[in-house]
Amino acid sequence: MNISFFGRWRRQQSAEPGSGLASAFDADPEGVAELLAECELLRSQAADAGLELDDSPASLSALDQLLPRWRDDPEMLPWLGNDAGLYLGSVIVRTVPGTTWHVWPGGGAVVRLASGREIPVVEAGLDWAVQGAPELSQVYAEASEA
Q: 63-66: long-range contacts at Cβ-Cβ below 8 A with a sequence spacing of 24 or more?
């Protein structure tokens, strides 16, 4: 169905400055960081396996050791991978000095190290959920060495 005024309205809404995650991050970086750290699906999957995620580097190693039962559900994979990446980023930001979240205007969240290097943690989380590599603990180790 072609509704021309709806298409114009959608373009206007998406082009409005000040909307989206990037502007929310500019207004309240700590609040957005807390929101990014929630990762409810990942936390529930880990709890089902008897693992409590405590936002520590050791918890990343423990996640790497879980049997990837989520791979049996292709609808869950992208959601779990997104959560895994956000959890990885939260652990890095909380434990590696000088790191911060950075949100691009399009809404993509990355971790920025003190050196200025950016780590696309959501991509790493998706790769981990789908393929098992790179391991979350390996990405953390690389970030903490930089």
A: 63/87, 63/136, 64/128, 64/135, 64/136, 64/137
* DSSP secondary structure letter of residue 111: E
CA neighbor of 98 nearest in space, from 47, 132, 138, 144:
144
**Which residue from 124, 113, 136 is spatially nearest to 65, judged by alpha carbons?**
136
Strand-pair category, 109-112 with 118-119: antiparallel
Q: Using DSSP, state whether 124 is helix, strand or coil.
A: helix
Pairing of strands 100-103, 109-112: antiparallel
Return the ∠ at Cα 39 (arms to 69 and 26), rounded to 5°.
150
**pLDDT tens series, the chain, 146 aa:** 445 544 554 555 454 555 565 566 666 667 666 777 788 999 999 999 999 999 999 999 999 998 888 888 889 899 999 999 999 999 999 999 999 998 887 778 899 999 999 999 999 999 999 999 999 999 999 999 97
